[in-house]
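Give me the fold.
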Amino acid sequence: MVSILLGVAIAAYGEARFDVWGAILRLGAVAFEATRVVLSQILQTSQGVQLNPITSLYYVASCCLVSLSVALLFVEFPILREKSGFHFDFRDTVTPVNLIGHTAAFIDGACYNNSKLQALEAKDLQKAFHVHEEESGKLLKLEGKSIGKKGESQD
């Protein structure tokens, strides 16, 4: 996780037009989003619903789209029309430091997800092994009891 953070920090440092206020707003947005996810998880768990954050986002995203679209139409678009600055400019400069930071964050994120997936698969495999081991033990006990009963009946 620290390496991902460092990659993002390098990418932000390499930004050609870095703005401190924009970075503060973005960090605030991330903090509020994390709070929303945690609170919705607490609410779902208290109601007996077991969804991971990504699955719950799948169900909540459509409601968010509708509510934010209403605000966009009635609040943001009139302001944009008045200022007549409504255009998209995708001609951003990508500095080498920015590219290195984004690449490092992407690779570190992929490695982190891969290690989490391998740990989850190992845990599932271990759980399946223990279930099989318990079933084998039960079968041996049952076979031992049935052999003992057969031996008693033969005497």
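The chain is about 85% helix and 0% strand.
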